[in-house]
Amino acid sequence: MAHAIRFEETGKPEVMRWEEVAVGDPGPGEVRIRHDAVGLNFADTYFRTGLYPVPLPNGLGVEAAGVVEAVGEGVTHVSAGDRVTYTGSPLGAYSTERVMPAEPLIKLPDAISCETAAAMTMRGLTAAYLLRRIHPLKPGDTVLLHAAAGGVGLIFAQWAKLLGITVIGTVSSEEKAEIAEAHGCAHTILYRHEDVARRVRELTDGQGVPVVFDSIGKDTVAASMASLRRRGLLVCFGTASGVPPLDAMQLAVHGSLFATRPALADYIADPAERDALAAELFRHVASGRIDIRIDQRYALPDAVTAHHDLEAGRTTGSSVFTL
Predict the structure, then answer these.
(1) Where does the Enoyl reductase (ER) domain lie (predicted)?
(2) pTM for the complete prediction?
(3) Burial letters for 287-305: b for 16+ Cβ neighbours within 10 Å, e otherwise?
């Protein structure tokens, strides 16, 4: 029998329950997939807490990889037996198997395991659109990246280095600084002990950076704006510490800054664009140019523990649930 993590109310990790579920046959445009590994992402906590409202009761999780067991009418881009990965709605990836829309599925090359795919599909595609779609970055540019030792951060820093972009990364500890530097960061800043904006100015001859990639939010937005050069771009692509209060006047005060709050869904909504980003990501990973670091593995029934670790900042790299 299939099992899944579900929740009937929003709140702390303890609202999640491991339940037996019925999985039927796929309808038109759907597939039945058996998961081999499931991704754990900070965005999952937003749904659980209610920051991102969803109808209740509901499942959880937006990323997994596994094998297609059956396809419904009209599904042509995948077949039974295909190894696939996905990220995106509807919720329900925290499950051993499920019926879901076929459209988000991306075929996996033989060189990439399901566990690696579950650890990198959301994070890797996020790094892809940040580097390849948000701003015309060029070799020689220097950028600031918050949470540089996290799952997105480690992929981003490696990819940026391949593109000739210098990354200044913020981290919370010496241990995380070593990890970030080993994965492409040219410089790291211990944000709990150093003045981030001052260090950025020191590292850029007083100029600041053209782009800041900020996945933290409320706690870092002031330092992010102060780190930008005139007419720089603040990219708020996550809200781990809460939604940042963006005052339009502060954008002017700091040098006529630009700001954007992008979402991955809008950069992979076009299947052709999604597949192009995924293909570039897969090539880098398959060749070994980008290493996917899996630092935490949890059994899926232990989702409560996993969410506590995630929210407490005890994780580095990518995290996956194994089945």
Answers:
(1) 11-321
(2) 0.93
(3) eeebebbbbbbbebeebbe
Kindly state the tokens that stand for 83. 């190894």
Give whole-number Cα distances, 202 to 165, 183, 209, in Å.
18, 22, 11
| 138-173 per-position pLDDT tens digit | 999 999 999 999 999 999 999 999 999 999 999 999
How many C-beta neighbours within 10 Å does residue 156 have?
31
* Of 309, 323, 321, 236, nearest in space to 42 by CA: 309
**How far from 290 is each of 17, 157, 272, 293, CA to CA, in Å?**
35, 9, 23, 9
Say what the pLDDT of residue 240 is: 79
**Residue 213, pLDDT score:** 98
The pLDDT value recorded for residue 238 is: 86
For residue 5, what are the contacts with CB-CB under 8 A and spacing of at least 6?
16, 17, 18, 19, 59, 60, 61, 94, 95, 300, 301, 303
What number of other Cβ atoms are within 10 A of residue 311's Cβ?
Answer: 16
Length of the chain (residues)? 323
CA gap 179, 185 in Å, rounded: 9
Helical H runs in the chain?
42-49, 114-132, 151-162, 174-182, 196-203, 221-227, 248-253, 264-267, 271-287, 303-311
Measure the CA–CA gap between 239 and 224, rounded to whole angstroms: 13
List the chain residues with pLDDT less than 50.
none
On the 0-12 / 13-18 / 19+ scale of CB atoms within 10 A, 1 is exposed
* Domains recognised in the chain with CATH numbers: 2-122+292-322 (3.90.180.10), 135-261 (3.40.50.720)
The helix (run of H) or strand (run of E) holding residue 238 is: none
CB atoms near residue 11 (< 10 Å): 11
